[in-house]
């Protein structure tokens, strides 16, 4: 009897755990597995999924260049004064002495050392000629930013600065953000903060005055480019809804490109002066010094790789899904049976691998997709996300299709209309019919009028009543 009682408790506990897992889908948005083996009617086979490398500190893999190249202090040796105290001139920079040198690599060493290590520029001795410095960080690889870019200044923070990005290995540049003590005066732009942005203005280039205060705020040393606060516009304040963010990244190419870079450039335009007028009698007070730069991100592998290796001073994706190239950007030789396409984050949580198939395999019509968004395991040609459709070309046609009935890119029984949109069944919505229609309604799929049972776990009262009935039943038997 006690054995049956134990089994009843185990069953109850299993039900509680399953309900909790259903309410908190921990697997959403991880994409940390490229493939797994599953059993089907045809035996053991591979189940392919979208995947991406883990985020890491990308400053371990960059090359830094300075323009002008002789802008680093120490050649010849120079003595510097403190900005807040022009009579405190005991800081020496000498490139020929390790203890007194401040080369660029000290922006990327281990923080927490005492004394602090930092790169430092020459002083503003050629005033009123502008003290201009370009710091360029290059990866020779496309990377995706996953956290804030943070610069820590050992000097005062610049009064004018621009952060720029490149997507073509430094051939062309575009601004990421402007920084100034007076945005109108410096860049003829109204000052804004990231909190002023919305989902519709996320891609706007703004000028902020938050990070350019003078030496009065000498304890405020950091300058940031806020990535996570932009993510939060879609994923929520604590980034709890990554599925929403990934859905947006999957269907909006400009949004993906905004967080994608090959190079960063920090343009230092005017050092901290701490006052309205520059003290021309002591120009050794004015310079740039940076102790740390943080850039968190991952290799861009088009959702076709789980790892990225650094070999011979170069980053490269370890490609899966029969793809190849530094970014897994093309099919392997003899795998051109279907045009290459980037992987898709949809459907959550596994995404779509969009694998390349061998040349000797003809087009295969996929069976329909279940209401849970999980494709039948016999499929050969995975669905293609809307955002990747321009790169998927149809044979004997110069026009790219947004959707296709043959490949069943419309999910959950949706029908492609004129190759431009999915006509969804009544119970589904979204660009690809990928989400239950009630999920966009007030209260969600479990809300009133949704026509579906709620997915929330059973209430505590119901669980207690169930447990009580089990205990009473066992007591009666005993």
Q: Keyphrases for this structure?
A:
single chain, 478 residues, eight-stranded mixed β-sheet, 6 helices, 14% helix, elongated, disordered N terminus, disordered C terminus
Write a structural description.
The protein is an alpha+beta fold. The chain is built from six helices and 24 strands. The protein has helices spanning 2-23, 183-187, 228-235, 242-251, 253-258, 460-477, and strands at residues 35-40, 43-48, 56-57, 63-67, 78-80, 91-93, 119-120, 133-145, 149-153, 160-166, 174-180, 207-208, 222-225, 260-270, 289-294, 296-299, 305-311, 314-319, 323-324, 330-331, 415-417, 421-423, 428-429, 435-436. Strand 1 and strand 2 form a beta hairpin. Helix 1 packs antiparallel against helix 6 (460-477). Mean pLDDT is 78; it is low at 1-28, 363-400, 439-444, 446-467 and 469-478.
**How far is the N terminus from the C terminus?**
7 Å
**What's the average pLDDT?**
78
> Structural class of the secondary structure composition?
alpha+beta
Query: N-to-C SSE series?
Result: HEEEEEEEEEEEHEEHHHEEEEEEEEEEEH
Total helical elements: 6
The residue ranges in which pLDDT falls below 50 over 5 or more consecutive positions are 1-28, 363-400, 439-444, 446-467, 469-478
Beta content comes to: 15-25%
Describe the largest sheet.
8 strands, mixed
- Percent helix, as a range, is 10-25%
Radius of gyration: 29 Å
The 3D shape can be described as elongated
Please give the number of β-strands: 24
